[in-house]
Amino acid sequence: MIKIKDLTFEYFERDEEGYLTDMINAIRGINFDAKKGQFIGVVGKNGSGKSTFAKILNRLLVPIEGTVVIGNMDAMDEANEQDIRKKVGMVFQNPDDQIIGSVVSEDVAFGAENIGVTQYKLWERVFNAIQKAGLVANGAKVKDVADKRINELSGGEKQKVALAGVLAMEPECIVLDEATSMLDPKSRWDIIELMKELKDKLGITVIMITHMMDELIFCDNIYVMHQGKMVMKGRQEKIFADPEKLREYGLECPEIVSIKNRMFEEGLIRDNNIITLQGLVARLKSEYPLAFEKEVSLPEHIKTHNKIDPTNAILFNNVSFSYGKKKVLDNISFSVGKGEYVAIVGPTGSGKSTMLQLIPALLKCKKGAVYVDGLDVNDRSTDIRKLRCKIGYVFQYPEHQLFAKNVYEDVVFGPRNVGISEVEAQKRAYEAISLVGLSDEIYDMPINKLSGGQKRRVALAGVLAMKPEYLILDEPVAGLDPEGKKEMLGIIEALHKEVGMTIIMISHDIESVSRYADRIVVLEQGQITYTGDVASGLYEIWQNDSQAMYNLPAIMQLLIKLRMSGLPVDCFAVDMEQGINNIKRALGWHYTP
Amino acid sequence: MLKDVTIGQYYNDDSVIHRLDPRVKIRFTIIYIILLLLDRNLVLFAMLTAFFLGTMLLSKVPLAHMVKGTKSIFIFVIICSAISIFSTPGDVVAEFFFLDITKEGIVKFVFLVWRMVLMILASSIIMYTTTPTELTDGLEKCFHLSGSVAMSITIALRFVAVLFEELDRIMKAQEARGAQFDKGGPLRRLKSMSTVVIPLFQNAIDRAGNLGEAMDARCYTGGKGRTKLKPLSYDIRDVVTYIIMLGILILGIWLAVKW
Questions:
Q1: Is it the case that residue B2 has pLDDT exceeding 60?
Q2: H-helix or E-strand containing A375?
Q3: Which of A92, A109, A417 sits opposite B214 (nearest CB)?
Q4: Using CB atoms within 10 A as the burial measure, which of A144, A402, A484, A558 is most buried?
Q5: Same domain, A543 and A561
Q6: Is residue A504 domain-shared with residue A422, that is, in the same domain?
Q7: Which range among A9-18, A93-102, A426-435 shows the weakest confidence by mean pLDDT?
Q8: How many Å apart are CA A52 and CA A208, to the nearest integer?
Q9: Inter-chain contact B218–A109, Cβ cutoff 8 Å?
């Protein structure tokens, strides 16, 4: 289907007068092969050149050197452009940036209209594509889905519309260019499973470009990119076998492989080639058949009281909130103590962001009250400015709110607003920039010269420069690659431990929640269904929605699966070491180190 | 607050008005606005109001939804029109500080507001009942626009809601950093608005780049050889509507001349 040899692509950078200032080798000497009906993964950290590579597959970019043959067509020849684009469909990262129509059917038809499909066939293709893209829920009618407005859809649904738009063109190959990176875990897995189905049923070649290694489980072949080169190639077993090397390339093994490696080191299992959860469970079962019982019941639902301490720093008292008629928060009460690290979890649209925006009075609650250090935030006598100095709020994708010409100017914006001296403001800005681990060389850098991860850290510094006591973060690691994510979480951890800030974080990223938070608050459909320790909370979510296994950290998934297969293991652990200890304990005398 | 703005957004339902050909709706709206501008005439206005209410009921778009989406514009209209209360010479009925309120002024004010409200509501009905694509298809035919101009309008309409959402978020983010948009002199306000407008534009430009790429990837080449999912074609109900339109036009002109 796709054959690429010695591919090279370069970007030219010019200054304002048009002189060549820099030549960036985006891609150097790549060889790549994809056979019909294969599922191929291309992984690499941000800036590794993987997106450039994706665009070459669809002839959005034309290589400088090399041969690119896509389904018997030479991609270097402009005459083949439209035919190549017909054959290779693309789904991009941001669902909002690729949908043209305002109604589902209009957008799905867009590509097919462009290639001149007749009207009668168009409707057939549109309905077909909507169905294949998994947009029609059980019991719903295709026609109703086709009539839906785009603005009413969630991110995951929008991404499926984009996929349907590609499917309506009946392509032979679909390239997903980080198409899952902005989605919540459920939508992410929906899309990945869907791609597997499309590959199996329709024989479509799937090329998935990503930085999340756990998404590669269905891949027949994986390519690892680093600094514009393909540095590794092979099946999953081969790629995952060398975590050290992957780390060098800014990538992380899937969690389950790390667990397996640890278990192998401990001598718990004697097979080092397992890469799936099921494989690991089966292996343990075959190595310790006597430790497994016929049936072990899962632990009961854990009902915990939502303990509210009225003396706590942040207190919600019977708060309700609605946008027009739509009720978003329904009688919520909870509290956060000084110095806590709290994670707020729950499905998209459950009201998490709304809830936290009430704290610095960015939204005003109509019923109930929110208190910060004993002061009602909606009271007229409360000084809003002082309140907002105390509470730092980092929005989702905060880098989209940077406005100044350079880093320093943006960071100093907050302190300048609060009426302190210029010298003091300056001092705060410098401190904040060093708190997020950026060097002083960066002060005069123009914003657009920074990498994505750097931009986000600058935005965080802009909030920290206000010297907040409480820091609220809305999806701080969304869209970051493993390296960026680790850095960001490290910074937040340091702010919590060393500076003593109270952290309240919304996150879909199970790993960041389970590894760092002291406590979680589960919000579902505008109501708090659980608050308490992380493991029990995540277990509670899973109990309520047994489909939502991906909401659990890998170690907990393993423990639950083991228990379901008959090993009486304590499944409340979110930490890998603790989890492995639980397994050892459950194996008892069967296991001798 | 900003999220409440619904003007220009399609209201998903199925009604006679929804199913009308966009060309009919566009022409009808234009005629309607011309009639509104024709004369300040109580009977004419009453007829046009009744006609609007009828259309609204047929369209199934709730009045509350329409008013919510256009509320902020009404306030603006009322404030602007209020000037006419004081500025029109005639019989003085009351005094307000040093300003005279005249009977003619009040009449003028009432008609001004009435006219503007009807204009806004009538033109919003077409937005609520027509998808942006249909609307641009209609505009393309009515005003002989080129395909790429029509496409730009479609996309612009699609992004109204997205940009409002983004504006709301950026404003909140800067407010969280102590920015105050409603305080200070005009210069200060302008300066604080720049912290919102710059990222908004930056994001819009980035978005435009991405969108262009996505359109390229889906074989868009400017409209040549493009087929249409919903090609425009006249139905019997469109013909009937054209006849009604003609009737109202004649009646309106007659009312304006006679009364």
A1: no
A2: strand A375-376
A3: A92
A4: A558
A5: no
A6: yes
A7: A9-18
A8: 13
A9: no
